[in-house]
Amino acid sequence: MALERVFEYPRILRRLRSGPIGKLLEGFCNWLLEHGFSRWTIRKHLFNVSHLNEHLGGPRSVAHQSVSLREVEGFFRAYPLRCRNRQAPEKHVRLVGYSVNRFLTYLRDSGLVDSPPD
Q1: Structural domain contains residue 9
Q2: Exposure winner among 2, 16, 89, 108, fewest CB in 10 A?
Q3: How far apart are CA 107 and CA 97, in angstroms?
Q4: What domain count does the chain have?
Q5: Which pLDDT tens digit goes with each residue over 29-38?
Q6: Inter-CA distances, 49 with 53, 107, 118, Å
Q7: 114 beta partners
């Protein structure tokens, strides 16, 4: 499994695999490995994308087979506001956005993005 190649601790692995996009993160990790990303960079991307996972419902929500652009847009609207309340630096919000966009690239390449109907 790809996540075991990047993370050792069972608690971190459980956290990443839980929630609505937990299963998709395994594929994303594998995609990052195939594209030559370092373990450190992969860890940063996965931790950043875990904020999207939390936004979509947390560990008790139903697993997603794909992600809709509407869900990601909702995250991009809500997350910066939540971070401002916690006084997180703008750089953090920008890096999370970068990782989520990289995740969207993986989803598009894999045919796992549900586009809203026109």
Answers
A1: no
A2: 89
A3: 15
A4: 1
A5: 999 999 999 9
A6: 7, 13, 27
A7: 68
